[in-house]
Design brief:
By secondary structure, this protein is α/β, with parallel strands linked by helices. The chain has helices spanning 10-21, 35-40, 59-66, 70-76, 81-95, 149-171, and strands at residues 25-29, 50-54, 99-105, 120-127, 137-144. The protein contains six helices and five strands, in the order H-E-H-E-H-H-H-E-E-E-H.
Length: 172
């Protein structure tokens, strides 16, 4: 496996790594509102690895586009580890890609709570292993980021790409 330069933007690094591995990704974005897809598609050749990007921002769109359970959404809320993990799995499986990437969070300036203040975000990465091998996985991380709405969205989008890059690197 070749090494990637540390000064290369994360969107280029993860794109090159996906392309080199012949892997594909689908993205479901909440708080980042399409910024992950914008970063991935900034470089030519993104169609080699990016299958689709969805920005389901309401409960209805989560149910309609990704078949998330109403009960799951009612019990945990969108900004939760459980729902974000399920978002990554759902976008991966509906797209039939190697990877699913999902973001959810509270970008602000309002909407925070004591349990989930503004800047709280969840990033989930789901991998599709070969059928019958029990190698499919889905992980989720919680982050607390500082800044205004624009800064939170950008930091979470780049964190999501970094998390994806780590997982792809570990699988190739």
């Amino acid at each position: 496996m070749r090494e990637f330069a540390s000064d290369t933007p994360i969107e280029e690094t993860v794109g090159d790594r996906l392309r080199e591995a012949d892997h594909t990704v689908a993205v479901a974005e909440g708080c980042t509102g399409g910024l992950v897809a914008t970063l991935l598609t900034a470089a030519p050749g993104a169609s080699d690895f990016l299958d689709r990007a969805l920005v389901p921002y309401s409960y209805d769109s989560l149910r309609e586009l990704l078949a998330l359970d109403r009960e799951l959404l009612d019990e945990h809320g969108v900004v939760s580890a459980t729902v974000t993990r399920n978002l990554a799995r759902a976008v991966r499986d509906t797209a039939g890609t190697t990877w699913g990437l999902a973001t959810a969070g509270v970008a602000g300036p309002e909407g925070g709570t004591p349990e989930k203040p503004v800047g709280t975000a969840f990033v989930a990465v789901a991998y599709a292993g070969e059928w019958g091998t029990d190698t499919s996985t889905a992980t989720v991380e919680r982050y607390e980021v500082d800044g205004d709405r624009e800064a939170v969205r950008e930091r979470v989008a780049r964190r999501a790409l970094s998390d994806l890059d780590t997982h792809v690197r570990d699988r190739t």
